[in-house]
């Protein structure tokens, strides 16, 4: 049965920085997008809504900046970003046994701050210059 509350958001693997970035084997963009589109069609045939992120979308608003975008971890935790898996600031809530969400609004604020600021950099990747929770609350300036 199709549940319209959920959809797969497909994005080809890419180099996003870090010490081992150059070692990451990735396909050429055109080949990766073809595979992702084929998989998306298979998902749709199976009743699973999905869509493929295109390079144009990638430069606009990151999925982590969107209010309706969640990463569901295997243990039911909810995150905003698929790059910052090891960061506690990325654990923003969890799915409860009844299917509802328990969310921490203070942990979500840094991820969606670009919606208020309209800053293209914050919308494009909220992980860049990620503020601490106390900085967002105005309690102390960030020390880099």
List the helices and strands and how they pair.
Blueprint: E1 8-10, H1 29-45, E2 50-52, H2 55-58, E3 71-72, E4 77-79, E5 93-95, E6 101-103, H3 105-117, H4 120-124, H5 133-136
Parallel strand pairs: 1-2
Antiparallel strand pairs: 3-4, 4-5, 5-6
What does this structure look like?
The chain contains 5 helices and 6 strands. The chain is α+β, with helices and mostly antiparallel strands and 144 residues long. The protein has 2 domains: 1-59, no CATH class; 62-144, no CATH class. It is globular. The relative contact order is 0.12. The model is unreliable at 139-144 (pLDDT under 50).
Helical percent range? 25-40%
**Low-pLDDT sequence parts:** 139-144
The computed structural class is alpha+beta
How large is the share of residues in beta strands?
A: 5-15%
**Major beta sheet, specifics?**
4 strands, antiparallel
How many alpha or pi helices?
5
How many structural domains can be distinguished in the coordinates? 2
Radius of gyration: 17 Å
Give the neighbour order of strands across the main sheet. 3-4-5-6
Oligomer status? single chain
């Amino acid at each position: 049965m199709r549940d319209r509350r959920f959809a797969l958001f497909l994005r080809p693997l890419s180099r996003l920085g870090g010490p081992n970035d150059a070692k990451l084997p990735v396909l050429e963009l055109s080949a990766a997008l073809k595979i992702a589109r084929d998989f998306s069609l298979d998902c749709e045939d199976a009743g699973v809504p999905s869509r493929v992120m295109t390079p144009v979308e990638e430069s606009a608003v990151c999925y982590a900046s969107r209010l309706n975008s969640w990463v569901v971890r295997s243990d039911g935790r909810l995150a905003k970003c698929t790059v910052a898996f090891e960061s506690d600031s990325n654990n923003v809530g969890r799915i409860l046994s009844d299917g509802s969400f328990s969310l921490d609004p203070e942990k979500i604020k840094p991820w969606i701050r670009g919606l208020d600021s309209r800053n293209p950099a914050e919308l494009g990747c909220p992980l860049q210059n990620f503020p601490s929770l106390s900085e967002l609350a105005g309690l102390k300036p960030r020390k880099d």
